[in-house]
Amino acid sequence: MTDRKVVVRIERSDPARWEEFHVEYRPNANVISVLMQIQRNPVTADGKKTSPPVWDAACLEEVCGSCTMNINGKVRQACSALIDQLTQPITLQPMKKFPLVRDLAVDREKMFNALKRIHGWIPVDGTYDLGPGPRQAQEDQEINYVLSTCMTCGCCLEVCPQVGPTTAFIGAAAISQARLFNNHPTGKMNADERLRALMGPGGVTDCGKAANCAQACPKGIPLTSSIAEMARATTRQALKDWFFRDERKGGAGPAG
Amino acid sequence: MPERYIVVGGGLAGLMTVIKLAEAGKHVDVFSIVPVKRSHSVCAQGGINGAVNTKGEGDHPDIHVKDTLKGGDFLAEQPPVKGMCYAAPHIIYLLDRMGVPFNRTSEGLLDFRRFGGTLHNRTAFAGASTGQQLLYALDEQVRRHEAEGLVRKYEYWEYLSFVKDETGACRGIVAVDLRTMEIQAFPADAVCLATGGPGIVYGRSTNSTINTGSANGRSYMDGAIYANAEFIQVHPTAIPGEDKHRLMSESARGEGGRIWVPKKKGDTRIGKDIPENERWYFLEEKYPHYGNLVPRDVGSREIFSVVKDLGMGVGGEDVVYLDVSHIPAATLDRKLGGIMEIYEKFQGVDPRHNPMKIFPAVHYSMGGLWVDYEADAKGNLLKDSPRQQTTNIPGLYAAGECDFGYHGANRLGANSLLSCIYGGMICGPAMINYAKNAAPKKGDVPQALLGGARQYWVERFNTIMKMDGPENPYVIGQQMGEMMVKAATVVKHNPQLDEALTRLQEFKDRWKRCNVLDTGRTLNQGVTYVNQLWNMLEIAHLILKCSRLRDESRGSHYKPEFTLPKVEQGKKPAEDPVFMKAWQDRNEKWLRNSMSTWTPDGPRVEFQKLKSLDNPILAPEPRHYD
Fold it and tell me: Is the pTM of this model over 0.90?
């Protein structure tokens, strides 16, 4: 057992290069624990000292979304990537659809900005004591709960052919969040704002229906259903806006 | 000039503070080392407590107060606990209004479940990822205020220290942009630290990698008092792992999960093949009323004893079974889905049909920065008083796990989400009151003060950047963690603590011979880790020193040499005069907060009586659960 090794190849930046590491095999290891082993002994397979690779991490339970990267070419969280289930050599690469910060760390700020665009919140009157919220059926809770487990990890954007350096597509995560808030009894009251935010350039019609997103989602969120539902709803909203255009005075514009 | 506010930390406590400030129309700068949506609050699983009493059990906030105080063996100041428990039903309703997908009853009302240390169904929950869902709700509200222009986020920025003026007041903070490594000083009239707990001091725990306690450690070094450091909660049920120990929520037991080991020592059969009558449900046997839902410190000690003293761990290993396989799979998915998936994903075994292998792991710090409160004679907190949640440093506040309030010697399950949100709710208004009425020269912090504070950190980081010694800081961190787990978790012994204190000094010496490992100018994690590591060593020092000094057993702090006598068989504690005498003597000496002040030679610790015990809401009583 002691001479069993884990072979891992990491795509690094500044300067761009690949580095290979051999670390001692340990039962129950995952990509994070291997990266931690490298931190404690940052020496490449050919004996060269290097700086420890840089990566993002926080919860290590697949609920925060931080440690998302491409592992053997597939985008996923490094914490739930168990060494025993991976083919070696294991390759680690940063996500490619987001600006690179360093090594395996990228900048996913555009996903949080997208949540601003779609008005991803319930507009409560305040944090004062206003009594209970609206009653909801357990069935509805079950649908919304799944939608609400989205951790903004970016897997759905990474695999989407419509997302690229020159495209504006907002991506499945934000569209699905619009659905979440529009399903809520209070959120429904300003559903039109969110739908208008999904119209126009980069909006829901930019989806190419490749359906990669739902497959890549680590939380099993039905992203293609969310997109289909929001596409139908935005069409209805667009018609409604056109028919009642004289009654609409200003209101929230297309991009909110 | 308008007042300026800073909140450090974007978990539940920090975000609730931000919301309270923004709702009052204040501009807030919020600093977080990760995008706030990725804060450690996401890891909380089981739920949030509030005596809403929807199950006809006669539950009441007063009973919640009693359970919380007793759960913490009366080492919590009482008025804040009362305020929290009374606010709890409203907090749950507020979260519901914000859109948290709480589980529902058939009538569409909020559902509640059982948790440890209480006999009532008091815990509202959203599957088994309640913390994640609560954090997202607050994150969404903060985003709304951000879109309105009231909140400015500094994500991927790390707090380095607060800025102290010549009067000793806090006038802002110094922080580093982790991506560009640029260091800046930010002025403020009031600062809230909501920077979480120090679990990473123990290496592997149930905590996120970001929970270094570094901000607390540094603030303590700069003069903030740290209280009750010795009280570290060890959660009874976690999956042991290489990178971290993953929590298996107490809600698994709240929904009927049972803890057992095979009756036959070293039984080699797999769990599900062992028949019912050959299983030892040791918690149910010893605690017929509370069963598997005894408080966490009690549960962890019992599991420890079965494994370490009796050698009855499953297969001779350091694990026991947590079994939910008798509960229908559909119910498990609906109520515990999140943790079922975690076990399956990380262990490759389906817990719906196999008992889970678990073991206690470091989970939560009851101790933290000392914070004050102000209450009337009846123990009700004064609304908006600037003393709520304030540290001993004027203008510096603390809320959430990073403060020491609310939980005493042991925290009850599902009270942490509550204390974080409640702390934030009263912290925001307190900061406003202070900034408007008490802060020196509001909004106007001398440039020289800010410049000097910044310069200190620029130089310190330059020094760290040049460290090229033989020691790998991550190795020091790992070894410190192993030492801490051995010396200061479930069972503590003075000789071991003395030895650990000696070793701690060696770690501090080794730190000075660290190699920074990285000279990059972008996202240099080596530099920030070396800086954090020193602050972690300071927290470790606090935990060890206070553990060594407290010669008693209370809540999570357990020294076998210093325990109360057993109550005479068949009697209640109050009926046994020998026990009661020992209990009273112990309280006289030790029902006190350990208050630590930093000195260059290590913590100066004083044990101070709780101020609310002069006129308690509830007189302390012996803490018995059998």
Answer: yes
